[in-house]
Amino acid sequence: MNYLIVGNSVAAVGAIRAIRELDQQGNITVVSREKHNVYGRPLISYLLGGLITEKRMSYLPDNFYEQNRINLLLDSEVVAVDSKGKSVKLAGGDTIPYDKLLLATGGDPFIPPIEGLTDKDRIFTFTTWDDAAKLKGISADINRAVVIGGGLIGLKAAEGLNLLNKSVTVIELADRVLSSAFDRPAGKIVARKMKANGIDVITEDTVVRIEGEGGEISGVTLKSGDFILCDTVIVAIGVRPAAAFLKGSGIEVNRGIVVDNSMATSVKDIYAAGDVAEAADFFSGQKNPMPIWPDAYIQGDVAGTAMAGGAKDYEGGLAMNSIEFFKVSTISMGVTNPLNPAEYEIHTYQDIQNYQYRKIVLQDNRLVGAVLVGNVDRAGIFAGLIREKVDMTPFKDSLLSPDFGFINLSKEIRSRLFGPQGKALLSGRAEQAVGH
Amino acid sequence: MKRIYSIEDACIGCHLCEVACITEHSLSKDPVKAFLHEPERPISRCTVEEWDGGVVSISTNCRHCDQPDCLRACISGAVQKNAQGVVMIDTEQCVGCWSCVMACPYGAIQRNLARKKANKCDLCPDRQSPACVDACPNRALVYREGSQK
Predict the structure, then answer these.
(1) Is there a contact between B105 and A384 if contact means CB atoms under 8 Å apart?
(2) Which of residues 73-132 of B touch A (CB under 8 A)?
(3) For chain A, what are the domain ranges?
(4) Chain A residues touching residue B14 (CB < 8 angstroms)
(5) Given B56, B95, B111, which is nearest A43 (Cβ)?
């Protein structure tokens, strides 16, 4: 069996481990357009800010590929898939045959058409190790940077540059930062922290023109007419599934590569996982691209299992992010900011001065979302309750408590999660030990 | 693999499991030194939860899952499952992003804010059975073969 995996990030790792669990013999080839072994992609802001060295970028020990007998082709881009002939074509012209193919190419940064953008030198995106390395390489020459986009990537890039003592302005089109992952109060707390650390945050505005002579940037002009002085621009509007190379392959691509609950695409023996895939959402079942790290691993695991002849059902993507901004921890998961709040039951606690916020979202007495800022301890308990669709009716009063835990749930839940199975409760020393 | 299980009806809420865990993960392995004199007191890997002043209590701990959510969520690769099945955190590699805290449905990963590192049960590699289990005066913690739940 010849397995071919296009892409070399966390979805690929999930798939490799799943394949090797079931098939120790088959050949696995991994092709990546990047030149690095698998690395912690979200760590690029830590690298930029000097919080970690290059050595710590490695997501796995270098012998991972050898141990799993992977044929690794780095710095090679797949430009076409021939699903009839069952092979892929590389940019260099070579073709690689496959029996089972996994497309895990991730996302490409979206760059909007902005006047003056194409002929300037210091325009960067911020999604790869090389992006971070390039930016860090010229950082001595950066005085003022503008970050277009106040989402997770934009804010982390801004934080990294700020840690290098650069003057940074974030420009966000929406009325607040982090509008997709967070609600208004949580976005406000983060914006407040950014400002307290010297980052300018401008909302409800956007860059219409990048100014300067030749390749050099002198500043940006905003829609409002304001002019911001800068020498470097980082475009962090968002990422799009990297599926453009599939044109003409016959594989169904909507926004991302459309997959079923085994991560199979519309074409036999071809699977997709991670940011490039468009899989079912946990709540609605509707298919959406979901660029979430843990989800990419899970999708890779499901895909690899199916490719090696096993079967695992994808439970559906649950958005979740844990991000720190200037030492304020934030965790958000599931439905955090419903469009039609009347259909939900929402509990909140906030202490903006001390960067504390807690929001719990229920629908039909089931937990569907949570936002925690500041004290994020044991946040995963909420993730478990969401996934298990536990009826929260008897437990609602305690949900906002800072030390919410299993003790606030039922004994049945506690013993199911932590108790020994079967006999221990009924006989033997456990029962004798009951002292009161 | 062997895991730690918690018997709620036998728990007396004494927190000795936490004391034993802190002691085992200290430099001196002496409780008085660990609590009073060492520069950093370790954080307990098990968490005793209590309700109504201790009428109900249970010691919660890592399940060393077969498919650990913490491992899947870890952005740096610091969380790995070793050959024995123990889910371990490489604290050198950990960047303190708390993705594992976000993902663990058992609430079994602690934040060491001073060191900015995640903290979790390692099943006490230097011992025959984990310190918390040995310390429990009413055998509310058992260490035996079983699945994660």
Answers:
(1) yes
(2) 73, 75-77, 92-93, 95-107, 109-111
(3) 2-35+74-108+240-307, 123-237, 320-431
(4) none
(5) B95
Examine the pLDDT at A436 and tell me if it is beyond 50.
no
Q: Of B10, B72, B97, which is closest to A322 when you measure between CB atoms?
A: B97
User: Rounded to a whole number, what is the distance in Å from the CA of B38 to chain A's nearest CA?
Assistant: 25
- Ordered strands of the A270-272 beta sheet: A70-73, A27-31, A2-6, A100-103, A270-272
Q: Kindly state whether A27 is in contact with chain B, defined as any CB-CB distance less than 8 angstroms.
A: no
Contacts of A55 in chain B (CB under 8 A): none
Nearest to A434 among B9, B73, B103 (CB): B9
- Residue in B30, B26, B64, B59 with CA at minimum distance from that of residue B145: B64
Q: How many CA atoms are closer than 13 Å to the CA of A176, on its beta-carbon side?
A: 16
Which tens digits make up the pLDDT trace of A112-157? 999 999 999 999 999 999 999 999 999 999 999 999 999 999 999 9
Tens of pLDDT along B32-71? 999 999 999 999 999 999 988 878 999 999 999 999 999 9
pLDDT surpassing 90 at residue A316: yes
Q: Do B67 and A433 touch (CB under 8 A)?
A: no
Q: Is the ipTM of this complex over 0.95?
A: yes
In angstroms, the CA A183 to CA A339 distance is 11
The residues with which A82 forms a beta bridge, in sequence order, are A87
Edge-to-edge strand list for the sheet holding A78-82: A78-82, A87-90, A95-97
**Phi and psi at residue A368, to the nearest 5°:** -125, -10
- CATH code for residues A123-237: 3.50.50.60
The CATH architecture annotation of domain A320-431 reads 2-Layer Sandwich (3.30)
Amino acid (1-letter code) at residue B70? C
Domain A2-35+74-108+240-307 in CATH: superfamily? FAD/NAD(P)-binding domain (3.50.50.60)
Report chain B residues whose CB lies below 8 A from the CB of A320: 73, 102-103
Q: What is the pLDDT of residue A421?
A: 77
From the CA of A434, how many Å to the nearest CA of chain B?
Answer: 5
